[in-house]
Amino acid sequence: MKSKNELKKNKGGRIPLIDPAKNRHVFYLNDADELRFIKLFHQSRAKNKSQFITSCLFSNPVKVVEIDKARTDYYMRLTTFFDQFRGIGHNYNQLIKLLHSNFSEKKALAFLYKLEQATIELVGLNKKIIELTQEFQQKYLR
Fold it and tell me: What is the C-alpha to C-alpha distance for residues 54 and 25, in angstroms, rounded to an integer?
């Protein structure tokens, strides 16, 4: 005689589902609708097409997340540029102190004149950055 453990022994294979999906429905799409369907399916990041279709049919929210690489790159570069701009301000103060302590007044004034011209260019560049940032915010973040 076989014991109870031997009768319940796993025979292998896939574990049966509790509520299997066994009803099938078919629908047809023209080429334009097919392209639109595929685009929405890829944007939703659903695991498979049947999951996407059931979520659309039963009005579950379809999550579509668009990540624009250009926007992300612009934001990252703007952030790094801001850090560099802050670093320039810090170096500017140290340079003024060094000029005052290490050079004669005439040489220091000559270097300060060159520094002033570079600062004027930097201010113009900063204004352009501010304009681009405001344009970016109006166009993409609102």
Answer: 11
- Mean pLDDT, 10 residues at a time, over the chain (142 residues)? 60 84 85 90 84 80 71 81 78 83 86 86 84 80 65
Place of tokens 């999550």: 63
Q: How many CA atoms lie within 13 A of 17 on its CB side?
A: 4
> How far are the Cα atoms of 29, 58, 115 from residue 35, in angstroms, in the given order?
9, 22, 59
pTM: 0.43
What are phi and psi for residue 72, nearest 5 degrees?
-65, -45
C-alpha 69/C-alpha 103 separation (Å) is 49
One-letter identity of residue 83: D
Which residue type, as a one-letter code, is found at position 69?
K
DSSP string, 124-142: HHHHHHHHHHHHHIIIII-
Q: Quickly tell me which residue has 């934001």 as its tokens.
A: 75
Distance CA 81, CA 88 (A): 10
CB-neighbour burial class of residue 56 (10 A; exposed 0-12, middle 13-18, buried 19+): middle
